[in-house]
Prior knowledge:
The chain is of the alpha+beta class. The chain contains four helices and five strands.
Amino acid sequence: MNRYRVLLLVAAFVAPLGGVGCFPLSAGIFTPIPVPPWVTERMEEKMCHKNDFRVPIMPPLKEGAPLPTCEDPPDEARVLRAWPKVARGVPGFYEEFRDVVAIVPELIKDTIDPPRFYPLVGWAHKHICHWKVTIYYKETIESSYPFPYRCVRDRVEVIYMDLDHLHPCPGGGPDAQNAVFRDITNN
């Protein structure tokens, strides 16, 4: 009986020690998991701006009406998201910054392809809108260790963006096309 009492006392003192300290999964489902800082940026890109790489489907082209043109240049936010990221630095050792001065879009190509079949869409015209975007900015490189250093340079970078979209092309003549146009535009 005395032996069981000693084992019980030892177990009572040792058991709480198993749940503390640096044991993996010691907090069960509440165990903190280290997450690199770039994970949140990647999730933000995936979830907040998922339409950046999707092709919009516009109303069909009407017979006799003038053909649409690429009037809307890419907005500044979309251009900045498409711009290559700044090199990751180490604070104090190497840091790189960009101050955007101007973004100048220029239309390169505006054509409408003949209809062809696209999966999940059907027959459609592809409206090709290619843009050349010139970004004028100031690049700043800083370091404070082992000696203070700061370099500011004017830079120019060019990005080519495709803002293509599709116009459905239903078969059956102008009446079917007008019906599809009314369905899409709710007129």
